[in-house]
Amino acid sequence: MGDRLPEPHASSSPAVAASSEAEEIEVLDSEDVLPMAAEDHWKALFDQFDPDNTGYISTEKFRSLLQRHGSELDPHKLEVLLALADSNSEGRICYQDFVNLMSNKRSNSFRQAILQGNRRLCSKALLEETGLSLSQRLIRHVAYETLPREIDRKWYYDSYTCCPPPWFMITITLVEVAFFLYNGVALDRFVLQVTHPLYLKNTLLYHPQLRAQAWRYLTYIFMHAGIEHLGLNVVLQLLVGVPLEMVHGAARISFVYVAGVVAGSLAVSVADMTAPVVGSSGGVYALVSAHLANIVMNWSGMKCQFKLLRMAVALICMSFEFGRAVWLRFHPSAYPPCPHPSFMAHLGGVMVGITLGVIVLRNYEQRLQDQTLWWIFLSIYVIFVLFAIFWNIFAYSLLDLKLPPPP
User: What residues act catalytically?
Assistant: First the structure.
């Protein structure tokens, strides 16, 4: 009878198919494998050099992997990988560090391996690169404004996609301006609104007689003493807050900002118990203080232009605003016996900035929960908040303090 031709697909064994698939993965173009492939493809590449599935490969094999599949990687990312290989004192590379880099995530061990390496970056600095578009120059400028290490600046430059945009600082600024304009029209006053007899009747500001209304510890940021108060806060929020949010993300920057706001109102309730409080200075001073402290602590690494002059200007502006707040606090009140708003919120924001804020800014793309100082400062902040809550519940009656009447 006639011989039947064999069916090639039916006769292929699973082992042959797996081998064929492995060969196909090996010859795939690197653009399809490394930057955009799924983790199982990266694992397949790594396993070619780790047949025993130990989770590690030697630095020599790691270099072979980069030479074979790294041609389409971002040059700065490839440089980080090479720095990782050169700086590893154990002579081997962990698979998880490799996957973290491909996923734009870096572990603390990865960060330490880079920082402890003796190899200098072989390519030119990011600042020396030419032919960049306007958006690329903006991203580079933000990197040099906020990050002290060249390898972090290059990492941020390659990874930033503007998705999501810095929405938090822009949104909070627009809302503050909108409320100010509304109050200006309602009171028919834009300069020194706080001196208007009806100013305290707003349901947003913090007032000691109304401290049981918990929302006031946050919403007071939408009330400002006047256009001179709002103007400086808005400028600092946009010039400092937006770049910080572009680098560190909305979650971290909003946490520092809101923590400064809450610390500001609670500081007033503890240290200036008869005064109301208005303005976003608590949150603004938290961000600016954290940024300035980070610059000072990493002075040699920060490459922003005219940093000494700009720090001096920032400190002068902050001092001017704080001086205005102190003057206003002791100026004869427009609604006696209640004094004008307190200046203690500024100091509460500064304390948050130089503690929690600095830890956030110093740990770019690192997990905060792995930082001991983070837990120490967070614990201190929580203890202060709990203390202030109990103070507001019991201290006013125990001290028999005479508060101004509610507005």
Answer: 281, 346
